[in-house]
Amino acid sequence: MKNIIFFLLFFTSLVAFGQVSDSIKVKITGKWAMTKHVLPTADEAMNKIIKETKSTYEFKSDGSYSHTFSQIYEGKLYTVVKEGHWKISSDKKEITLFNSKFLPPHDKNGIVGDHHLVIIKLSKTEFVTNEYYYDEAVPGTSYYKKQ
Fold first, then answer.
1. CB 92 within 8 Å of CB 21
2. Where do the structural domains in the chain lie, given as residue ranges?
3. What's the whole-model pTM score?
4. Of 5, 82, 108, 109, whose CB has the highest number of CB atoms within 10 Å?
5. Residue 102, CA distances (Å) to 63, 69, 111 in order
6. Mean pLDDT to the nearest integer, 78-94
7. Closest to 134 (Cα-Cα) out of 48, 34, 42, 55
8. CATH for 2-146?
9. Which one-letter DSSP state was computed for residue 10?
10. Pairwise CA distance, residues 105 & 118, whole Å
């Protein structure tokens, strides 16, 4: 009898654990557009996104992703696209981006290291994470809305 109870408890915990992971995967799958990127400063937080800057992540259910970043610099539009794979960390607190690469014409300009997006908040419509932009010494907080 003890073995049956142990098995049922063990099986129930596995099912519940899998549902948390699946819930996060379902929520993050889709296209996300950045609405603001806030940097902590000595006095107050500062939104660093300028109107001409656009950043979008698209997380696909097959574990692949793309990240498109566009910005006007010196009057010219620059767009950089990265593609790779993503997975949810075992503690469900981060999304790991790995096996990433730049797409042409930026594929000759360097490599993309594996990195993590800390999940500060994730709902069906909002994703908040810490990440680096520009020449930041510390990561800022990025706010994304689902498209």
1. yes
2. 2-146
3. 0.78
4. 82
5. 17, 11, 7
6. 94
7. 48
8. 2.40.128.280
9. H
10. 29
Mean pLDDT in residue range 2-30: 58
Tokens of 50: 């300028």
Nearest to 69 by CA among 126, 116, 120, 131: 131
| Host H or E run for residue 23 | helix 2-28
Count CA atoms closer than 13 A to 26's CA, side-chain side.
7
Q: Cβ distance 147 to 56 under 8 Å?
A: yes
Residue 82, pLDDT > 70, answer yes
Query: Quick check: bond before 105 cis, omega within 30?
Result: yes
Is residue 37 exposed (0-12), middle (13-18) or buried (19+ Cβ within 10 Å)?
buried
> Is-contact 144 33, C-beta < 8 A?
yes
pLDDT tens digit sequence for 45-75: 666 666 778 999 999 999 999 999 998 888 8
